[in-house]
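Complex 566.
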Amino acid sequence: MGGMETNISRRNLIKGGAAFAAAATLLGASACSPRKDAENAPAAKSDLPADLRASDFKYSVVETDPITSFASEETYDIVVVGAGCAGVPAVLTAVEEGATVACLQKEATVAANGNGCSFVVKEASNLSGIARWRSDWAKLSDWRINPALFQYYVDYAEEAVPWVISRGIEEGITPIEFLTDSSIRYDDGSLVAVCDATQESNQSLMVALANRAEQNGAKFYYETPCVQLVQSEDGTVTGAIGKTKDGKYIKLNASKAVILAAGDYMNNDSMVDRNLHDSFMYPRVLENHTGDGHILGILAGGRIAPLGHARQIHSNYIGPFMFFPFLALSLEGKRFCNETVGMSSLNIPMSYTTKPEDAGRHFRLFDSKTEGFYPSSLGIPPVALVGEGSAWMDPEIVVSGNTLEELCENAGIPVDEGVASIKRYNEMCAQGRDDDFGVPGSHLVAMDTPPYYCIKGDVGMSAINAGVMVDDRYRVIDEDSNPIPGLYAAGVDAGNPCGGINWSMPGGFSNSHIFTAGRYTVIHALTGDMKPKNPSGFDDLKEYFAGEDGSYMWESPDCATAISVW
Ligand SMILES: Cc1cc2nc3c(=O)[nH]c(=O)nc-3n(C[C@H](O)[C@H](O)[C@H](O)COP(=O)(O)OP(=O)(O)OC[C@H]3O[C@@H](n4cnc5c(N)ncnc54)[C@H](O)[C@@H]3O)c2cc1C
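Predicted structure with flavin-adenine dinucleotide bound:
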């Protein structure tokens, strides 16, 4: 997984504004005068499904009172709810497949996050390699990962992710990094070939793809959240209702399917309190992610994924820094964890020892050693990765000092407590064993070479990766596990691929299953099959992924032999 991107930067807001202003052509959209619709009859609030509470609606825009009067009505093949990492690929796919499509979007522009994505090259892998790799990840979540959704990623991300990347390149957005280092050759000859790509920002990528879709006939309704689905008496979902800024309702009929792609529910305190009771410990990275897609899906007869709802944890230090086990101190200047814990689980030890009001803040320390350091994934010491121009570290969050006292002073660590903790840590390094937290001697690196550095660390919840239950085609399923006709979900509001407490999945899996489900729900809804009209694949990008010598890591004797947990 890659690093942090803010949700809607000013630059992206401007781009999004331009997208909104761009002329859109309506393909086959039929505008109608207001009318009443007897088929739209959602459950009354007193009659809520077991997976919902009345308090959920305090935070969500979804409405339960039947909406029967519309300012306009239009008909499309596909209606997408949400213009993020799943919704935008869904819209662009519909356009490429020759379908008519409209998207209801809550915000004034596209709003997407993240930057990493990945896929397996099946032809270069063997079956046992893929199976062993899946098992390695499954073990980390107590075997709770959903094998069908993992297989969906293996089978279709191989086409969908290169398709997203290629369309981005055609729009002038090329990933900043292409790697094959996550490939693994196991001791028994099992092999999995994995490609990772990192975008500068998914936000700008999705804005570009949305512009492309709009120029080719897709219709985006910004600042028009979906507040209700339309369902016929037999349960088929036949459309979605958006609410405009001035409070008018527009009805979008979907002749093939509605795709829910409305993101997670981290800002719906009622849902969070029910499903992630410990999340008060660390900040939520996003705003306005209120579980609308979950609620719409449940009201249509779906059910929420059983616990656990895996939370994705990001720190503000990324890339190789995620793998350094450097000294960690709390705001009080005390050591609080075994520093080999990965970024994705740092919230757990923090929840035992730090205070809720610390809100994920902590310190990570290292010195200026250039030898004898714990090697980074790039094979260079941390000191070489800080400073102006570093791709991995925002200079504003790093401070330095020529003495331990000066470092603590500059970083805002209580000096007496901080210096005592560092000295105690150095004693553990000197004896080559850690009496306090059990860090292996090989991973202990003393703070003894000035100048010393401190990262003012932050850790927060960037996504809750669990949504409404779906089948192996991402159709929303009901209590009896039957698909609800006309309704798919894609993105973090779909299914429960991980099932663990924290998200421990292959790097980029989240964005990739999101892109993939966005694209393939539409293909499945339109064709009943999983074959895109204009397929892409690894071959389109193989030059980008090749190393300097033209080869890939899965061919190299240096290929990794085990997964790296970050
Ligand atoms: C800072 C950060 C970094 C991340 N980095 C990575 C990474 O590197 N790799 C990775 O794999 N994953 C990463 N993730 C996790 C995840 O992949 C992203 O959050 C991703 O954007 C989720 O995609 P999505 O389409 O499911 O939801 P979103 O991208 O959040 O899109 C949902 C959209 O629906 C809209 N919406 C919500 N409600 C409604 C409604 N009622 N009607 C209409 N529209 C609505 C929202 O405005 C939003 O635009 C990161 C997450 C964050 C926050």
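The CA atoms of residues 108 and 444 lie 49 Å apart.
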